[in-house]
UniProtKB/TrEMBL annotation:
SUPFAM superfamilies (UniProt xref): Thioredoxin-like (SSF52833)
Signal sequence coordinates: none
InterPro entries assigned to the protein according to its UniProt record, in alphabetical order: Aim32/Apd1-like, Thioredoxin-like_sf
Pfam families named in the record: Suc_Fer-like
Protein's name according to its UniProt entry: Sucrase/ferredoxin-like-domain-containing protein
Organism whose genome encodes this protein: Mycena belliarum
Length: 250
């Protein structure tokens, strides 16, 4: 990147940095429904009856529900699979969610998100999701799409160089609207629960290095932010806690 563009990029990042940090709404669990299509092709306002029903129940205790796509066969408006990450207990998966079992799934998600467990349900895998919901905001479709492709290419390059390396444990996907369009590209990292923003394709190798070097478990309330220069916040922390944690690491 030419020096002039690099300086302009740094200036842009620094000018919005105070807004970036602490910009994640408080939540205890992030709940991903297998999307019927890639977020890039979803309408600006997309929902399903079971997604609405699940959000209504989980929002009471701090659950966030969204749609994600990892290239696998998608769900439908009547049935899908669910993967959720909790600040307390790592990952939980339900192969089937429908209106007939939404109450049962919601109850299990509440236990996972609110009851501390001695055993973290985490196999060491890292899941990363880029917001690419272009119909909701063109910045997510444009920069989000570019960062997703850069991450895919970088992971493929590392896997080719070292098939058994740390990149093998990464699942990369796309996610629909997460909020904070002005911070595109937005990246969510699990099980750590980290939210990163203002990423560009040029940032990908550095950011990926930092993520792969981090602990593969939910981040605690005192763990240093991953990639502090791009850090929006963390699952399980409110705005003031996010700001305090970032300031303590500065």
């Amino acid at each position: 990147m030419p020096l002039s563009k690099l300086r302009a990029r740094l200036s842009s990042v620094l000018s919005t940095r105070p807004e970036l940090h602490g910009s994640v709404a408080y939540h205890r669990s992030y709940i991903l429904l297998n999307s019927p299509a890639p977020p890039m092709s979803l309408p600006a306002r997309f929902s399903t009856p079971m997604q609405k029903a699940l959000q209504l129940q989980t929002a009471r205790w701090g659950g966030m529900v969204n749609f994600a796509w990892t290239g696998m066969p998608g769900g439908s408006e009547d049935s899908t699979s669910v993967t959720a990450f909790s600040a307390l207990g790592g990952r939980i998966h339900f192969p089937t969610l429908s209106l007939s079992n939404v109450d049962e799934v919601a109850a299990a998600l509440m236990r996972h998100g609110t009851v501390p467990s001695r055993v973290l349900n985490n196999d060491g895998e890292i899941q990363m999701y880029v917001c690419t919901h272009g119909e909701r905001d063109c910045r997510c479709g444009d920069m989000g799409g570019k960062v997703f492709q850069a991450l895919r290419a970088e992971l493929d390059r590392r896997l080719l160089a070292d098939p058994d390396g740390s990149a093998k444990r990464v699942t990369l996907g796309e996610v629909s609207h997460v909020g904070g369009h002005k911070f595109a590209a937005n990246l969510l990292v699990f099980p750590q629960g980290e939210w990163l923003g203002m990423l560009t394709p040029q940032d990908v190798p550095h950011v990926l290095d930092m993520i792969l070097a981090s602990e593969r478990r939910p981040s605690s309330t005192v763990d240093a932010p991953i990639c502090p220069e791009f850090w929006r916040g963390r699952m399980g922390l409110d705005k003031e806690e996010q700001l305090s944690l970032h300031a303590a690491q500065s």
